[in-house]
Specification:
2 domains, about 25% helix, binds iron/sulfur cluster, globular, 3-stranded antiparallel beta sheet, 8-stranded mixed beta sheet, 11 helices
Length: about 350
């Protein structure tokens, strides 16, 4: 598939009965997108995902989970995505992994997306894999690892897959319920890698892990990512991993990008008040923790969506939505009328 071919979101069987099979139209590249180093592998443009607020009322109010998101990911690049719960990160992960259809916008994967596959869509989505803390149903927990992985890999490749994620091949006979949270994530990783993906999405995988387990998992991901030249999108609250493991970071609020840039630049000198508040909260600076409730995503505020909670808000913030503007550091952008910018 050429890089110019738009992706048609797949109909996801049982999981997506409520979602339409949307053809994502190509849109022009906006100026706000930060450049990536190397070949762009995954390109997301003006992605919108509006979900019914009430599953039983299909035509009722809609939650704007993502609202005009742009993102580029290069081969071998690790990009972090941070934000409060409900920022839209998991929705983005599910759209990219083909589990959820977008309302509008485009998602493109460079190169031949369907090697040897009868279905281009099937081939495309096999190249984007998402891992998240497993929630195996009780019935599935009784399965052995070999049986659970059997649909995608078996025999010697199964042993190799387990070794690659740091698990002994002898564990293939164990039940899933015998594994702790860190090992269960490694199993998910093994299953994801078995499809030879180009893009790996880690969806808040640090949840429920101790610091030692986190460290081991991040080291494992770093080694595997480098070995396979995987593009990785890491949705996380772990700022240490953002700083030391990710080249760029994107800050999301109410489904919109507030700030993005090189990890060190954003973490050391955040330009957007929302990022500043997030980092202050993580550092335990109580005086600067975000005030007020997150607005109702069915009715996002006019102008800057952050203005009801922003300590720096002025009249212009209520009237006019700011666009991402380049700051003084190359590749660093912030969507704030008063952020320091490159003039
Ligand atoms: S545009 Fe205004 S309300 Fe929005 S973050 Fe900047 S100062 Fe705050």
């Amino acid at each position: 598939m050429s890089t110019d071919t738009p992706v048609r979101a797949r109909r996801c069987g049982r999981r997506s009965a409520a979602f339409a099979d949307v053809t994502c139209q190509p849109v022009p590249t906006p100026l706000s997108v930060s450049p990536v180093v190397g070949r762009t592998l995954l390109s997301v443009r003006r992605l919108r995902v509006y979900l019914p607020a009430n599953r039983l009322w299909r035509f009722g109010p809609r939650v704007r989970a993502l609202d005009g998101l742009d993102l580029d990911l290069a081969a071998g690049e690790v990009v972090a995505l941070i934000g409060e719960h409900g920022c839209g990160g998991s929705t983005l992960a599910r759209v990219l992994a083909g589990e959820l259809a977008p309302t509008a916008g485009s998602v493109r994967l460079a190169g031949d997306a369907s090697p040897g596959s009868a279905s281009p869509r099937h081939g495309l989505y096999r190249q984007v894999q998402r891992i998240a803390p497993p929630e195996w149903p009780r019935r599935q927990q009784r399965l052995s690892v070999a049986r659970w992985l059997g649909g995608v890999v078996h025999g010697e490749p199964l042993a190799a897959a387990l070794r690659e994620v740091g698990l002994a091949p002898e564990l293939a006979g164990q039940r899933l319920s015998a594994f702790d949270a860190g090992q269960a994530l490694r199993l998910q990783l093994a299953r994801a890698l078995a499809t030879r993906p180009a893009v790996l999405i880690c969806d808040r995988i640090e949840r429920g892990l101790g610091s030692e387990q986190r460290g081991e998992l991040w080291r494992c991901l770093r080694r595997i990512g480098a070995g396979h030249r995987l593009a990785q999108l890491v949705i996380t609250d772990d700022l240490d991993w953002v700083r030391y493991g990710c080249r760029r970071v994107v800050v999301l609020y109410l489904g919109r990008v507030m700030e993005q840039g090189p990890s060190a630049a954003v973490l050391d000198a955040p330009a957007h008040p929302y990022t500043q508040a997030l980092l202050a909260a993580a550092a335990g600076e109580h005086g600067r923790i975000l005030q007020g409730e997150r607005p109702d995503p069915r009715r996002p505020p006019m102008g800057c969506v952050f203005h009801p909670r922003c300590p720096m808000a002025e009249a212009v913030c209520v009237r006019t939505a700011p666009h991402l503007q380049r700051s003084r550091v190359p590749g660093h952008y912030a969507a704030c009328h008063f952020a320091p910018r490159d003039v």
